Amino acid sequence: MRPRTDIRQDQYVLAIDQGTTSSRAIIFDRTGRPVSTGQREHHQYFPRPGWVEHDAVEIWGNVREVVAQALAAAGLNQDSIAAIGITNQRETTLVWDRRTGEPIHRAIVWQDTRTQDICRRLARIGGTDRYQRRTGLPLSTYFAGPKATWLLENVPDAKRAAEAGHLLVGTMDSWLLWNMTGGTEGGVHATDVTNASRTMLMDLRTLEWDPSICEQMGIPLSMLPEIRSSSEVYGHGRRRGLLAGVPIAGMLGDQHAATFGQACFDPGDVKNTYGTGCFLLLNTGTAPVFSDHGLVTTVAYQIDGHEPRYALEGSVAMAGSLVQWLRDELQMFASTAELQQLASEVDDNGGAYIVPAFSGLFAPYWRPDARGAIVGLTRYVQRGHLARAALEATAYQTRDVIDAMRAEASLDLKELRVDGGMVANDTLMQFQADILDLPVVRPQVTETTALGAAYAAGIAVGYWHGEQDVRKNWQEAARWQPAMPEQERERLFRVWHKAVTRTLDWVDPDTAGS
Ligand SMILES: Nc1ncnc2c1ncn2[C@@H]1O[C@H](COP(=O)(O)OP(=O)(O)O)[C@@H](O)[C@H]1O
Ligand SMILES: O=P(O)(O)OC[C@H](O)CO
């Protein structure tokens, strides 16, 4: 293996974006422009209501394939790649055997709710906020630690093998890093501070595993990856791989990578990624801010040798997936282009509101007992109104989170930087600016997740020179200014809240699979 120190002007940086539905590899040039892409979806397993699993071996295979696709499409080989960044769906957890490299069970995905009983058990002492001031997170099925507990308690022989030191636990970043650096032949077992901050096992201030929480969750410290910064050389591509010898030098959870790629480096900078769900991160500076308004506290990113930056995060479970549901299950329109056409044919929502609480409400409500509803129906309401209501639902949910952020951190929010699939929708973006009373700004490169991981890797090896290069490369492509009169804005938002109250306390404990 040839450790690389030489960085040439004509090189590129490769980012691997291991997402919930697919894995992508994107090669970026020095200006932060994508040069080529490879992408492949993986299977979603739903073995029981509320359970969601991924096959980590399939994902590792897909990652190798998409890297090959991206290199081939650009006509490049490993000599042209200065560094590799990894970014990933967060919280999705797996345990594997360090002797064979085989997972002991399929990975438990972030959306999976099977750890409800474990969370309830842990909350018996101190309630759901038991670990909040140490880890920034409420006890919720969303986070990684209890998923590891479930695997150790439910997979035969796992506990014993873990105690004997045979098993490793990690999120997708660690799984890919370990395999990419050689797997059973000396793979590096590490994670970064952002991914670790989603486990509920890391102390947010010391950035180390909290031994007492690990013990309470029954997770031996010997299984856990080493916690490193988000931008440093963790290891090099394995000898037999396509990227042999290339430094793997950036690792961040996908929402943190998007924050980095959007150059949200100053306190008060905030971004929203509109995909399946919505994820808002607000940079709060060098000290963690703990929330009383339903937001979680997380590490935004850390460059090696620098203080970490913290963020408040609000996650919305369903945004683009509501659009998908209306298209695929209700067949209300055939494409997102048709949705846009329908929504533009009406002036407003006609009094109809859709609250997409299909799997409860995440931030800032955290109500697992809520279920989706369409309210305000009259014979006046037509398809266009419902199409519009679907888009508006995303904007209102975003406002709920921004309001919590405004209440929490006394920071002046100047604009909302946006990315993700839904930002192609101009009707939504204008309504978002209107309902927030805040400018909404879309950058030229909207692949900000992969780009953020590429920047973290490139900075570590000296390909880019710190945050200033990221700021320089970030370019505005579109801006929407708020134009709605205040009275109208607040009336719409007040009725939205009324609609939300209609969805709460819906789950009937006696109804299986509800
Ligand atoms: N023009 C559009 N209007 C509304 N929603 C859209 C539009 N284009 C894409 N979407 C939605 O955006 C989502 C895809 O965004 P993407 O960022 O690729 O998601 P993810 O990374 O979470 O899989 C889908 O749920 C899709 O329904
Ligand atoms: O893979 P995505 O883009 O759906 O993001 C998933 C989030 O990281 C979950 O917390």
TrEMBL record:
EC number(s) reported in the record: 2.7.1.30
Any single Pfam family the record assigns to this protein: FGGY_C
Alphabetically ordered keywords of this record: ATP-binding, Glycerol metabolism, Kinase, Nucleotide-binding, Transferase
Domain Carbohydrate kinase FGGY C-terminal: 271-460
Pathways per UniProt: Polyol metabolism; glycerol degradation via glycerol kinase pathway; sn-glycerol 3-phosphate from glycerol: step 1/1
Positions bound to sn-glycerol 3-phosphate: T20, R90, E91, Y142, D254
Positions of glycerol binding: R90, E91, Y142, D254, Q255
Catalytic activity, as annotated: glycerol + ATP = sn-glycerol 3-phosphate + ADP + H(+)
One Gene Ontology molecular-function label: ATP binding
Family: Belongs to the FGGY kinase family.
Protein name: Glycerol kinase
